[in-house]
Specification:
The protein is an alpha/beta fold and 598 residues long. The strands form five sheets. Strands 6-13-12-11-10-8-9-7-14 form a nine-stranded mixed sheet. Strands 17-16-15-18-19-20-25-26 form an eight-stranded mixed sheet, with helices on both faces. Strands 1-2-3-4-5 form a five-stranded antiparallel sheet. The longest helix is centred in the last third of the chain and has 21 residues, at 539-559.
Length: 598
């Protein structure tokens, strides 16, 4: 694969060595740390440093090894920061880090960095990483554990600590009334002929929410299994990591008046699970654990004299020290999904369309473009469809855990098996650098990436003559107060600096440029931790945006203008008024489409 940013990494490394007093060196990818061998990173730098507390004028950690791991897309995407696993005891369990990866969460995935200043990116990351570690050691940010509780519950706290491998979804809408109210419906999904994953749905037997799912599996000819789950109404003492729990430890969470019922449940069932509610940021999540299998073959005991409960919890027997496997459910209830979202007479043409980014915008765009007499598609995305996506995505429950491009092709093939569709499960950056000829065989390119740095890089590829096909770029502004459609004709490109000011300020944005800095916490929301950030907008407004610009897209595809065109869609401005979001102009009107003149 073409390494287009090798020179930039080399220059950045030299500048970093000259900027730091610490010792900086390059690390071989055959190193002991697992992340060093990861395909995610093409280069890793080692920094021998320490953590100095300026407030107390004292060294908190005199010797600390930090790693800067760079992916092939750096500086379009920031590096990742890790610290040495051997230094864990110096740091401990603190917010924004994890035990196994020893990573330090510095930037969330929505951050936009200045790709023109790669050294500045790394220096800023190192600064923020040290600040995070210092604040954690001094226990100044302990409260952040609450925000990141789910992330840590789903992270192993030591080498013996295990997590349940199956994904469990939650359909519990009402609070269970009894310890025996919950059940788990387990099923298998075939991702391919050779790959199959097991999943489950936690549900409340007092509700009938599971009925449509049982009917769904029945229509597929599947026979899912159902297991009883022991419900704990209230749990205390589980507030911060490590969350490593032995079988014996879990007895502390069973209330005295429920001990008898728990013992009966444990001896009666072959699969034993416990679930409890946890309220985080106003949302109730159901978490829990699964007990390991017990072995009845123990010398000195008669088989009939050993019950599963005794084998698992008696301190004189080895079962009590085994670790349970924790799980956190992925909410499938309507409330959560809403919160995460917001003709024959026609001439038949054979279009070849490449769509990169098959998320909320891209998947629904594919659904619209497919009306062009089933064009030949190339779909590119390296991400899987998760439950929080399905309210705004073209596809739903049936495609969870599948690669988004694979899922869409499966969906389209159900409508017309003969339709020509090509997919790539890699990033569009990698796919482009390995398949430039294929890109330039398309009639039109559509980029729905939501990553402005990467999209600007493709515009530069157009300007440099490497990409020769007309290219559409689509993105949405927070709460879909605005949406943008950019069409770049390779023979009529505007000045990139005219369209974009500074790092990210698009000339024709609906929201005032400075608001993206002033109201970042309002524009980028998160459910739990740095890895769960999302941009708020509803599926209704997404549909309005796409249906408004779709006629322009068709007009361009059919008429093939030889000029670049730029359109801005204005959404529901009452949302801007309610949230006190300033707009670029006072003359905007809701639900209108503007043709911006260059």
């Amino acid at each position: 694969m073409t390494d287009v940013f090798k020179e930039i990494r080399s220059d950045t490394y030299i500048q970093l060595k000259n900027s730091l007093d610490d010792e900086v060196s390059k690390v071989s990818k055959t190193g002991n740390a697992a992340f060093l061998r990861s395909e995610r990173f093409c280069e890793v730098w080692k920094i021998e440093t320490g953590l100095y507390d300026d407030e107390a004028s004292v060294w908190l950690v005199e010797e600390l090894t930090i790693y800067v791991a760079l992916g092939i897309q750096f500086p379009l995407e920031p590096a990742k920061i890790f610290y040495s696993k051997s230094d864990f005891e110096k740091i401990g369990h603190i917010p924004h880090t994890s035990f196994f990866a020893n990573d330090v969460c510095v930037f969330d995935e929505f951050v936009l960095v200045d790709e023109n200043n790669p050294t500045g990116i790394v220096l800023e990351q190192l600064k923020k990483a040290k600040e995070t570690l210092i604040q954690g050691i001094k226990e100044k940010n302990v409260g952040d554990f609450k925000d990141e509780f789910l992330a840590y519950w789903n992270t192993s706290g030591n080498s013996k600590d295990k997590l349940l491998s199956e994904t469990i979804y939650c359909l519990v809408d009402k609070k269970p009334r009894s310890f025996d109210s919950l059940s788990l419906l387990t099923y298998s999904t075939k991702l391919s002929k050779k790959e199959e994953v097991s999943s489950g749905i936690l549900f409340n037997k007092e509700e009938d929410l599971i009925t449509p799912y049982k009917e769904y599996f029945e229509n597929l000819g599947q026979s899912p299994k159902e297991y009883n789950v022991f419900y704990i109404d209230n749990i205390k003492g589980v507030e911060r990591p490590p969350f490593s729990l032995t079988c014996y430890d879990t007895l502390n969470f069973i209330a005295p008046d429920k001990q008898k019922s728990f013992k009966e449940y444990f001896n009666k069932n072959t699969e034993r699970l416990v679930a409890f509610p946890k309220v985080l940021n106003g949302t109730t999540y159901f978490l829990g654990w699964h007990y390991p299998k017990v072995d009845f073959k123990i010398k000195g005991f008669r088989k009939n004299g050993l019950t599963p409960f005794r084998l698992t919890f008696q301190k004189t027997l080895p079962g009590h020290a085994k670790y349970v496997k924790r799980f956190a459910t992925d909410i499938l209830t309507e409330n959560r999904l809403i919160k995460r979202t917001a003709s024959d007479a026609q001439e038949q043409m054979d279009y070849k369309l490449l769509v990169a980014g098959i998320g909320s915008v891209g998947s629904n765009l594919v659904g619209l473009l497919n009306n062009l007499n089933n064009p030949e598609f190339t779909l590119v995305d390296n991400d899987k469809l998760s439950s929080e996506n399905i309210k705004r995505h073209l596809l739903g429950f049936n495609y969870l855990n599948q690669n988004k491009a694979v899922a869409v092709i499966n969906n389209l093939k159900q409508k017309l098996p003969s339709q020509k569709i090509h997919i790539s499960e890699t990033s569009v950056f990698d796919y482009y650098n390995n398949n430039k000829d294929w890109f330039n065989q398309q009639d039109f390119i559509f980029l729905c990436l939501g990553k402005l740095n990467l999209e600007k890089w493709f515009i530069k590829e157009l300007a440099n003559g490497n990409l020769t096909k007309p290219t559409f770029i689509l993105w949405v502004e927070p709460y879909l107060i605005g949406g943008q459609l950019l069409f770049f004709h390779p023979d009529n490109l505007p000045n990139l600096n005219y369209l974009f000011h500074d790092i990210y300020k698009y000339k024709f944005a609906i929201i005032e440029h400075e608001e993206f800095e002033r109201k970042r916490d309002l524009f980028v929301l998160k459910e739990s931790g740095c890895q769960t950030t999302y941009s708020p907008y509803s599926s209704t407004h997404l549909s309005l945006f796409l249906t408004s610009i779709y006629p322009k897209i068709i007009e361009i595809i059919v008429n093939k203008p030889a000029e670049s065109l730029f359109f801005s869609w204005i959404g529901d401005l009452s949302i801007a008024d309610k949230l006190d979001i300033k707009l670029r102009s006072n003359s905007f009107e809701s639900y209108t489409l503007i043709h911006n003149q260059i």
